[in-house]
Design a protein that fits this description.
Two copies of one chain form a homodimer. By secondary structure, chain A is α+β, with helices and mostly antiparallel strands. Chain A has 16 helices and 39 strands.
Chain lengths: 731, 731
C-alpha cells in the first residue's frame, strides 16, 4: 500500500493547543470561563527531521504552519531539491500562535511515520563552523487511523470535508492528509437540524424546542432591523424560560452582528440545549431559526450495539449511546452545557464506555495527552488528587483494550514526571491532600470528611503504582536500548519501594477486621504524623467498592464488604451516576447482574421517566419536578447531559455481553455472557480487528468474531472461539 | 505623587515571548535561522488579582490583550462597577499568541505594583458551589522605570511615541503606560538616516555607504516597474559586493512588494550593515534609498562619559560606546549582523559595560529573564555550560550595582531549578561536559581540549555557588515569612555541601605547586571516575585569570599566576575581545593599568587602524586585509560589531576612573582612580541615584557624586565623599 502523507507536529502539542481552545469555550451567562488549572502551550520552535534514501533527485514542496527553514545534511537550502542518495532532511518551524506543523507530499518524501522531532536541536559550532551535538528527538505526533480504521473511513463517508460554510470558522477533518487541512483548522463536522416546534408568546418572544438534548451552533436566518436578540438556552423548558437564571445565553446586536460568523447565519459560539428562548428588542427580527449540530464522526457499521428483550433497557442503552456521543467531542468532556471541560475522572469512564461503543482510540489518546499537558507538573490533573491517579490507570486500561505500545512509549516520560510529583507529596508513603489539592471522591448527599488521609485515595494510589509497574515492564520488554532498560529498571525499583509497603499500611490503618469493612480516613493535619490524627470511622461505599474493583481485597474481605457495605441498606446510597458506574461494576464482578439490571431500570429508567433525553450529572429519585434541575446552589446548575451518565454502555458490554480483552488489544479475549434476568440479548463489541458479536437467549449463546483468540466462558465451561467462525453453545 | 497605571503580565512571560521574536529574526542568506536551544512560551491563561479598598463605588474600564472575564469577590461580572468597600478583583485572561496582559486606569484602581498574578488559580468547588483553594500568586511583571529613572524620561524626550509610520509594524515604547501601547506592540524607536555616498557601477547596480556600521530597516522610495531588487548587505565593502558570500540579503519582488511594510517604503526585516549593494532586475527602479536607524533609547545626560589626554583612547571609548549601543536592543545581543541572538556569556559582559555607560537596568533584567526561559530545564543556558554559570553570577553582579532585592526574589525559583539541573549533572562534585553540552571557554587560535573536566569550568561553578549563597542569604535577610526562610535555609545548606568541598578538589586536581599554575583538564570520559582520565597539563590563561578574578587564588598563587601565565609570553595569547575583557581586568586588579593602557591602544587601536567603526568579534593583528573578515570557515563570517568588543567601557570606568559599588546599589562605593600613564582623565559613572563624576590629573583628583556614601582611595589614603559635595585631593 502506498504510504500517505500526513501533517506532523510535536507529540502532544496539538492536544495542548486544541485543549486550550476547547476548555476556554465554557461560558457562564455570557462571561468566558476558563478552567481553574494550569494551561500549557505547544513548543513554539521545533525541528522536524527524517533520513531519506533517494534513487533519484526529488523536488519537494513544503506546506507549513509557521515560519520555517529547510536544511539538507545540515546546510540551509532555499532551492528545495533533494539530491539522490542518503540525506538528513530537517525543517525548523516557529509558530507562536498554533503548533508548528509540517506537510510534505512528494513522490518519495512524505511526512508521517518515520519522521522525528525535537524542541531543541542543541547544535553547537566549533571554531571551523562545524556543527556538533543534537537534541532529543522523539517520533512526531500525527493523527493516525483509529485502531479500528474507523475515523478515516467515516470521515470520507460522513464528515464535511471542505464544507467551511457549514462548519463555522474552519474545515472539519480528522486525518490531516492534505495541504489545506492543517491542524490549526481542525473542526468537528456539523449538519443542519430544525426545531420540532415553536411557541410564540408574543411578537417579540418565542420558545423553540429541538425535541431532545443537542449541541451546536444556532443559525438565525434573515436577521434584520435594528436592536438586539437575547437568546436564552435551556436543557429544560424551565431553564430556557428563566431568563435571570439560565446558565448560558447570547446577546446578539443585530446591526453589528458581532456574534455571527461573517457572511453566515451562524452564531460563533456552540451551546448545549434542547430549548431556546428568543426575545427581540427594537425592530430586530428574523425569518427562521435552525441549528448546526456538531458531532464527532463515527462509523455505525464498526460501532458497538445492543438489543434485548427489555424495551426499557434498550432505551437506556440508546440514550446512554447518545449521551456519550454528545460528550465525545475534540476530547471526551464531562457535560456539554456547563463545564465543557476535560476532566480525568469523567474521561476514564468515557474511555471504558467508548471501548464498547465507538472504539475511538484517537479521542482517547487526545484526551489523555490533553489532561497531562506539559512539564513542569505544578498541580494534580484538574487539581484533583483522585484524577491524577485515574490518569495513570487509564493509560494501562487503554493498552489493555488496544495493545498500542507506541503510546506507552510516548507517554512514559510524562508518567514519570507526574509520578515524581505524587511521590514528592506523600506523607509516610501515603497520599494526603495538600492545602490546594481538591479531594473529590464524589458529590455526596451526606456529610463526608475529605481532608487528611483517605482510604479511598490510598487504593487509587496503589492502583496507580500497579499501572506504572505494568507499563514500565511492558516498555522494558519492547525495547532493545540498554540505556533505556537501565532507566526503566531504576524506575521499577523505585516504584516497588513504595508500592510494596502500601497494602499492609492500608490494612493496618483502615481495615476493621471485626466489622469487615474499610473505614474512611485518618484526620491528620497536612504533613503531620498520622498518629496525630483521629481515625474517622465513617463507612462509605467508596473505598470498599474500589478495594474489590481493583482486586485489592482478598476474597474473604470482598465477601464481607459485599455483605456489610454494598448490599447493606444502612450505608448511605450513591447518588451520582459517576460512582454508580463503579458500584454496579463491583456487583457485576460478583455475578449480581440480576440486581444490577433492577438498579439500572430503577435509576436510569427513573431519569427516562422524568423525561431525560440524555443522562444527567446526578439523579436523586426522592427529588420532585424542578428540584432535578438544581445543583451547586443554582436552579439550573445540573448538567442534563453528562458523560458519566452513560455507564450502562460499559456495564452492558462488559458484564452482560461479557466481552473483554485478556491479552492487550484483544489478542486474546473472553466472552462471559450473563442474561441477568433478560429473556434474550444480542450485541456487538468493537475491537482493534473488527467486531465481536454475541447473541444469547435462555437456550444458547452464539459468538462470532472478526479476529483474535477468544474463549466463550459459560459456567465452568470454556469454548475456543476461532476468528471468523460462528460458535454456538447450547445450555 | 499620583500612581500611574501600567500594563501588567506574568513576570518573565513578556521576555520569553519577545525573546522568541528577537532571536528568530536572524537570517542566513535569506533563510530564517532560529536558535539551537529550547524556546519557551508565555502562560496562555493567567489570573490577575488585587485587593481594593474603595471609599465610593467606581466604574472600571478593562483594556486587555486576550479574551477575559472579570470577577469581584469570586463572582463573575459583566457590569464593571466595583462597589465601595474592600473587594478582591480578579481578571482572567487567555491569549495563545501573545502574553496575556491587562491595563486598568480608573481613578483608584490602576494596574501596576500591588497586583499579583497566577497561571493556575487551583480553585475547587464543593457540593454547595462554594469555591476553595487558590494558586500561587506572584507579583506581576511590568516595565518599571530604570533604576536611574532614565528610560521613561528619555522616552518622553526622544522616542517616537505613536510614530507607527516611522517604526515598521508598531509603536515604539518602553513604559506601557497607556491603553494603546500594550506589550505585544513593543518596538524600538527609529530615526531616518541617509547614506553618505553611493557608487553606481551600471544603471542596474550600485553600492551605498552609510559611513559607519549601522542597524535598521532599509527604505526604498519611489519603487516602481516590474522585476526585482536584489539587496546585499555588508559590514564591509567587500562583503556587500560579494553577492555569493555576503551573510545577509533580501530579494524584493517589486510588484508584490511582499518584503515591504504595507503602505510604506520600508523593508520588513532589520539588518546590520554599513554598505548596501543593490541590483535591479527587469524594469525595477526607485528614486532614493534611506534607512530607519533602530535604537534603544537612552538619556545622554544620565549616561557615563570619558575624556582623557590620549585621543586614541578617547576614540576607543567612543567606538566602544557605539558598539554597545548597537548591540543593546530589546535585549543585549552578541553581534547585530549574524547571530542577533541573546547569549549569556556575551550578555554578562554587556551588563558590566552597561553599568558604566547607560545603566539600562530594564534591559539587564529583560535579558536575564529571556536567557533563563521557563521550566523545565532541559539544557544549559544557550546549551553552553559556562553560560549557565555566567547567568548565576550575573544576577549577583546586577544586585551589587543596583541593590534591587525584588529582582532576586523574582528570579530565585528559577535559579533554584537551574541549580538543581547543574547539581544533577555533577560527576563527583565537579562540572563535566555531558555529550550534548557545549563547552565554550573561548574561540582560540591554538588547539585546546574541551571535553572531560576542565579547571576553567570548576572555577565558574565555584563562583556560581558563591552567587547562589549570597543571593539566598540576601533574600533570607529580606523576608519575614517563616516558611520561605526554612526553604532558603535548606537551599543554603544544600549548596554549602557542594561548594565547601570544591576549592580543595580544584587545587588537588589542577594546581601544579611546582609550576605555580592551574593546569587545563582531566580528560575523563563522561560519567567515568576522574582517575580514569589523564591530566591534560596544557597551560592557558583561562583558568588562571579566573582564579585571580574570582578571588579564588591566594595572594601567593595569584602572584605566581601573574608571573608564570598572564605575563609569560610563552603562554598562547588570547585573540578574542571576549576573554581580553577578563585578562585586562585581572591585570588591572593588580594595578597594571599602564600595561593595560598599552594593550588597549595596541589591540583596540589596531582595529581602529584597520578602519573599524565598531569593535569586532575577534581580532588577530597578524592577519591582513580581508583575512580580518573571515570566521567559521566563511569569508564574511566574522561579526564586525560585537558586544564583547566594547569592554574598554568597563575597564576604563571600573579601573581607570576606578568607580565601583561597595554595598549593593552604590549605597556605599569607592573611587580608586588610576591614570595608568595618561596625563589627565575625566568622566562620569551612572548609578541608581545619579552620577559620580571623577576628574584627575597628575596633581589632583576631584570627585562629585549625586548620592551614596563614597570613599576616594588614593594610595593608602581614604577620603570620605559626601553626597552632592565636590571633594578634591591634591597629591
Amino acid at each position: 500500500m502506498e504510504k500517505k502523507a500526513t501533517w506532523i507536529w510535536y507529540p502532544g502539542d496539538f492536544e495542548v493547543w486544541l485543549g486550550n481552545r476547547f476548555n476556554n469555550r465554557r461560558t457562564e451567562r455570557g462571561s468566558m470561563f476558563p478552567p481553574f488549572w494550569k494551561q500549557d502551550s505547544h513548543w513554539p520552535t521545533v525541528v522536524f527531521a527524517t533520513t531519506v534514501q533517494l534513487e533519484q533527485a526529488e523536488d519537494i514542496r513544503i506546506f507549513c504552519e509557521g515560519q520555517y527553514n529547510v536544511a539538507i545534511d545540515g546546510s540551509l537550502k532555499s532551492m528545495l531539491n533533494v539530491p539522490a542518495g542518503k540525506h538528513r532532511l530537517t525543517v525548523k518551524v516557529w509558530n507562536q500562535a498554533t503548533p508548528p506543523a509540517l506537510f510534505i507530499d512528494s513522490p518519495t518524501i512524505k511526512t508521517g511515520e518515520g519522521w522525528e522531532v525535537t524542541f531543541e536541536d542543541k547544535i553547537w559550532i566549533d571554531e571551523n563552523g562545524v556543527a556538533h551535538g543534537s537534541g532529543i528527538y522523539v517520533p512526531v505526533g500525527h493523527a493516525s487511523e483509529r485502531a479500528d480504521g474507523c475515523a478515516a473511513a467515516t470521515l470520507r463517508g460522513v464528515a464535511h470535508y471542505g464544507c467551511a460554510a457549514a462548519t463555522p470558522g474552519g474545515i472539519a477533518h480528522y486525518t490531516f492528509d492534505s495541504p489545506d487541512t492543517p491542524p490549526s483548522k481542525f473542526r468537528l463536522p456539523t449538519k443542519p437540524l430544525r426545531p420540532v416546534c415553536c411557541d410564540s408568546f408574543s411578537t417579540s418572544s418565542s420558545l423553540y424546542d429541538f425535541g431532545r438534548e443537542t449541541f451546536g451552533f444556532l443559525c438565525i436566518h434573515g436577521l434584520r432591523g435594528e436592536g438586539l436578540l437575547r437568546i436564552y438556552y435551556g436543557e429544560s423548558r424551565e431553564e430556557a424560560l428563566d431568563h435571570d437564571h439560565c446558565e448560558t445565553l447570547d446577546v446578539c446586536p443585530v446591526s453589528r452582528a458581532s456574534c455571527m460568523v461573517p457572511g453566515q447565519p451562524t452564531l460563533h459560539g456552540s451551546k448545549a440545549f434542547r430549548y431556546v428562548s428568543i426575545e427581540k428588542e427594537g425592530t430586530a427580527d428574523f425569518d427562521d431559526l435552525t441549528m448546526l449540530y456538531e458531532y464527532a464522526p463515527f462509523a455505525p457499521e464498526k460501532s458497538g450495539s445492543f438489543r434485548c428483550s427489555d424495551d426499557e433497557l434498550n432505551r437506556i442503552w440508546e440514550v446512554s449511546a447518545y449521551t456519550l456521543d454528545l460528550t465525545t467531542r475534540e476530547f471526551f468532556c464531562d457535560g456539554i452545557k456547563r463545564d465543557r471541560w476535560v476532566w480525568s475522572g469523567d474521561a476514564i469512564q468515557s474511555y471504558l464506555m467508548n471501548y464498547y461503543l465507538r472504539f475511538d482510540t484517537e479521542c482517547v489518546k487526545r484526551t489523555i495527552r490533553q489532561l497531562r499537558g506539559k512539564d513542569p507538573v505544578t498541580t494534580h490533573v484538574n487539581t484533583i488528587m483522585d484524577y491524577t491517579f485515574y490518569w495513570f490507570i487509564s493509560i494501562w486500561q487503554y493498552y489493555e483494550y488496544t495493545g498500542d505500545v507506541a503510546f506507552l512509549h510516548e507517554m512514559f516520560p510524562k508518567m514519570k514526571t507526574l509520578m515524581d510529583f505524587v511521590l514528592s507529596r506523600l506523607n509516610n508513603g501515603l497520599a494526603e491532600g495538600k492545602a490546594d489539592d481538591w479531594i473529590f471522591v464524589d458529590w455526596t448527599d451526606f456529610p463526608m470528611h475529605k481532608r487528611g488521609t483517605l482510604c479511598f485515595e490510598q487504593l487509587l494510589l496503589w492502583k496507580s503504582f500497579e499501572a506504572m509497574l505494568n507499563i514500565t515492564s511492558t516498555i522494558y520488554q519492547h525495547t532493545d536500548n540498554a540505556k533505556e532498560k537501565e532507566l526503566l529498571n531504576d524506575c521499577l525499583n523505585r516504584y516497588l519501594l513504595f508500592s510494596d509497603r502500601l497494602p499492609a499500611k492500608i490494612r493496618e490503618l483502615f481495615y476493621d477486621k471485626k466489622e469487615g469493612v474499610f473505614l474512611h480516613a485518618i484526620e491528620n493535619e497536612e504533613g503531620e504524623d498520622l498518629s496525630s490524627g483521629e481515625l474517622n470511622r465513617q463507612v462509605t461505599k467508596f473505598p470498599n467498592m474500589f478495594a474489590i474493583l481493583y482486586n485489592f481485597a482478598t476474597t474473604e474481605e470482598a465477601l464481607s464488604i459485599l455483605k456489610n457495605v454494598l448490599l447493606n441498606p444502612d450505608v448511605p446510597p450513591i447518588t451520582t451516576p459517576y460512582m454508580r458506574f463503579y458500584e454496579l461494576e463491583t456487583l457485576c464482578k460478583y455475578g449480581l447482574q440480576q440486581q444490577v439490571l433492577r438498579e439500572m431500570k430503577s435509576y436510569w429508567g427513573g431519569m427516562l421517566r422524568e423525561g431525560a433525553t440524555s443522562f444527567w450529572e446526578k439523579y436523586n429519585p426522592e427529588e420532585k419536578g424542578t428540584e432535578h434541575l438544581a445543583m451547586y446552589g443554582r436552579p439550573y446548575g445540573k448538567s442534563l447531559c453528562h458523560a458519566w451518565g452513560a455507564s450502562p454502555l460499559y456495564i452492558i458490554g462488559r458484564y452482560f455481553l461479557g466481552v473483554g480483552p485478556v491479552k492487550p488489544g484483544y489478542e486474546e479475549y473472553e466472552v462471559r455472557p450473563v442474561l441477568g434476568g433478560l429473556e434474550w440479548m444480542e450485541g456487538d463489541v468493537p475491537t482493534p480487528f473488527g467486531k465481536i458479536h454475541v447473541k444469547m437467549d435462555k437456550k444458547s449463546v452464539t459468538v462470532h468474531s472478526d479476529g483474535g483468540q477468544g474463549k466463550l466462558i459459560v459456567g465452568e465451561k470454556s469454548i475456543d472461539i476461532p476468528a471468523n467462525e460462528k460458535v454456538t453453545f447450547y445450555f
